[in-house]
Amino acid sequence: MNDFNLHIIEEFRKNNGVVSGPFEGTPVVLLTTKGAKTGLSRTTPLVGQVADDGTLFVFGSKGGAPTNPDWYYNLVANPRVGVEFGAQTYDAKAEVVTGPYRDEVFARQTEQFPDFGDYEKTAKRVIPVIALRRAPVG
What global pTM score does this model have? Predict the structure, then answer.
């Protein structure tokens, strides 16, 4: 993990989900996935979006890189993930959103954060949208 992400994770956990710097005021999510190849847990800070029904979405933008991020492949292989959002920590089921609903969610994200639209243009791929739904306890 790079120092930048490590710093965000540490600050997030120290301040109940609040971070400063370039992500100040942004809904940051810490997503913990199980490695598809290694089986090791990996935590990644991401920008999220909360829908009116409480569903939490994250986006596989990888800053506009031409390939999807590793965490995306991890959650496709192992959809049970850990979520930290604000002061909440819980298990969730990750589901890749497709079709018109994906486009609607992504459009909302680009309205709030125009960089995401730029990422998709630069990447020349459809940025994955992932719904994180709280897993039942037990």
Answer: 0.94
